[in-house]
Amino acid sequence: MELLAVPVLLAAMAMALTYLAWTAASRRRRSQCYLLDYVCYKPPDDRKVTTDMGVALAERNKRLGAPELRYLFRLTSRAGLSEQTYLPCGILAGREKCLTHQDALDEMDAFFIDAVAGLFANTGFGPRDVDVLVVNVNMFNPEPCLASRIGHHYGMREDVAAYNVSGMGCSATLVSLDIVQNVMRARSPRPVLALVLSTEVLSPGNYLGTDRSMMLGLCLFRCGGAAALLTSNPALGGRAKMKLRRLVRANVAAADDAYSAIFQREDADNITGFSINKTLPKAAVRAFAANLERVVPYILPVRELLRLATDLIRQKMSRRRRFKIDVNLKTGVDHFCLHSGGVAVIDAVKKNFGLTERDVEPSRMTLHRWGNTSASSVWYVLAYMEAKERLKRGDRVLMVTFGSGFKCNSCMWDVNRDLADKGPWADCIDEYPVQSTANPCLDKYSWMMNDNTDDDSTFPLL
Ligand SMILES: *[C@@H]1O[C@H](CO)[C@@H](O)[C@H](O)[C@H]1NC(C)=O
Ligand SMILES: *[C@@H]1O[C@H](CO)[C@@H](O)[C@H](O)[C@H]1NC(C)=O
Ligand SMILES: *[C@@H]1O[C@H](CO)[C@@H](O)[C@H](O)[C@H]1NC(C)=O
Ligand SMILES: CC(=O)N[C@H]1CO[C@H](CO)[C@@H](O)[C@@H]1O
C-alpha cells in the first residue's frame, strides 16, 4: 500500500510544481522588479579607525576598569575586522560622551548626500523621477522622519510614496525591497521607479557602560550605507544589473531565545544599549531554516526537489522519528550573498547549510574591510562579487539577511548581464581575499590577552 503511494505522491508533487511555476510565471509577467544600480557609501579616509584608536577610545571611558578593557580588546582581536573600518566623526573627535541629535543627523546626511548623488550620476535619473522612496535606519528615527529629510533635501515630487522603516534590524534591507515589490505589484502595469536607502546611524547607539553582553557592538558595528535604484519598467530591463525573482521573509519571534538574541535594554546602571546573547548564531540558523523551507520550492530545480521528496517519503516510511533532509542549495544557487554580521554567524550558516569557504568569502571579506554595517552589509557583499567579476549573465544570487526579531529575510536575484563594477572596492579589491583576518596588533597588545580569569561567555559569538 505504502509503496503504491510513492508514485502517486510524486505525480501530485510534479503537478503542484508545474502549477507553481505557471502561477509564478504569470505573476512575473504582471510585474517585474529590476535592480538598475546601487552605490555603497565609502566614508572619507579620516574616519578610519585603527586598533590603536579603538584602544585609546576605550581607555577614555573611565567607567571601564582593567578587566573590561582586556575583555573589549579580546573581543576586538577576534572580530575579524581590519584597520580600515569607519566610525562617526563625533566619536573620532572625542565627543563620544556628549553626542548630540545634530551629530546623528550629520552622520545620516554625509551618507545619503554622497551615495544618492553617485547613484543618480550612474543611472541618469534624478530626484523627481522617483515614485517610491524607502529609507531603513534601525536606531535613529527623528521627527520629521528621515524619508522626509531626503525628500526635502532633493525637492522630490509631492506624490512620492515615502516609507521609513526603523527598528527592524539588519534584515531591514529586504523589508524595504518587499515594500517596493508590493507597491510595484499594486501599481502595475504603470511603471514605478524606487529609491531604497539602507544604513545605520551609530551616533545615538554608542554604548559607554560595562555590561559585557552590550559591549560587543563597540567591536563590530561600523559606518556604512547603500542606495539602490529599482524599476518595474520592462523597457529598462535590458540596462538592469539584476532581476528580483523571489523574496521570502521569516520571523521566529515566537521562540523566547530567538526573540531575545538581540535586545535593546538598560544595563544595571540604567545605560541603554543593545545586548547580544550568545544564542544568536543558533537563532540565525533556525531563522534561516524557516526561511529556506519556504524559498526552496522556488529556487531549486525540479530534479533536486524530486530527490528531496523521495528522501522525505523514504524517511517517513522507515518511521525514523527525526528527519534529516540534506538540501543541496548549490543546485539552485551560484552565489551566496550573506549578511556579514559577525564571524560566528557566518561560520554557523556555512556549517549548517553545507557551504564552502569560497561561498562565504565575500561576507568574510566585507566584515574585514567594512565591519558590521548592519542592513547595508549585503550590498557591500554583492559589490565584492561584482568587483571580483564573479557575477555572470544568468547566474543566480541568493541574498540572505539576519536581524533582531529574530528575522531571516532572503531573496533570489537573476544576474542580467556580466557585471564588473569595482564600486567601493576599487582601491583594495586586489588585496582580497586576505589570508588571515586576525587582528594585526595582537603582539603589541599581548599583555591584554594574558588574563584568563575573565568571563568568556560572549566568545562563541566571534
Ligand atoms: C540569553 O538568552 C537566554 C535564553 O533566552 C537567557 O536565559 C539568558 O539570560 C540570556 N543572556 C543574556 C546575557 O541576556
Ligand atoms: C535605575 O532606574 C531605576 C528606576 O528609575 C531606579 O530605581 C534605580 O535606582 C536606577 N539605578 C541606578 C543605578 O541609577
Ligand atoms: C550587526 O550590527 C547590528 C546593528 O548595527 C546588530 O543589530 C547585529 O546584532 C550585529 N550582528 C552581530 C552578529 O553582532
Ligand atoms: C514604521 C516606522 O518605522 N515608522 C517611523 C517613521 O518615522 C517616525 C519619525 O521618525 C517614527 O516615529 C516611526 O516609528
UniProtKB/TrEMBL annotation:
Protein name: 3-ketoacyl-CoA synthase
Keywords of the record: Acyltransferase, Transferase
The keyword Membrane is annotated on this UniProt entry: no
Assigned GO CC terms: membrane
Enzyme Commission number(s) from the entry: 2.3.1.-
MF terms (GO), sorted A to Z: acyltransferase activity, transferring groups other than amino-acyl groups
Gene Ontology biological process terms, A to Z: fatty acid biosynthetic process
Family to which the UniProt record says this protein belongs: Belongs to the thiolase-like superfamily. Chalcone/stilbene synthases family.
Keyword Transferase: yes
Organism whose genome encodes this protein: Triticum aestivum (Wheat)
Pathway as given in its UniProt record: Lipid metabolism; fatty acid biosynthesis
Stretches assigned to the Beta-ketoacyl-[acyl-carrier-protein] synthase III C-terminal domain: 332-413
Enzyme class, spelled out: transferase
Position of the signal peptide: none
Gene3D superfamilies, per the entry: 3.40.47.10
InterPro entries on file: 3-ktacl-CoA_syn, ACP_syn_III_C, FAE1_typ3_polyketide_synth, Thiolase-like
Domain FAE: 27-316
